[in-house]
Fold:
Amino acid sequence: MPLYDYFCLDCQKRFDVFMTYAEYGTRPMTCSACGSRNVRRRIPRVRVAKSDESRMDSLAGDFSDPSALAGLENDPQAMGRMMRKMGKEMGEDVPPEFGEVVDRLEKGQSPEEIEKELPDLGAEPGGGEADF
Structure:
């Protein structure tokens, strides 16, 4: 049975309801918190799966012009935005440190400052360097 997501317009609570396809649209819906019938169906976010090729094409479009990369070493915020976009486009799990570095860059902190404040960044537990 599918799970349907609703929102109560009276008490502002979100709730889920299991019902069959046949019941959907015919079954009267009431808020599970306050009992109101003043509810609206919420449409959940949709994820679109991309192939590796389409991800690379998307990144190539942004960075195909060499001038798009010019000056990144002098603009931590632009570097952070680029790294965040690349992380999202790659669709892979990144370590939590990646998010912290990107957040710091977007706030304007230089890579050198980040490296000084996080000296163990990228170090493997055994003492080697991690492959990011």
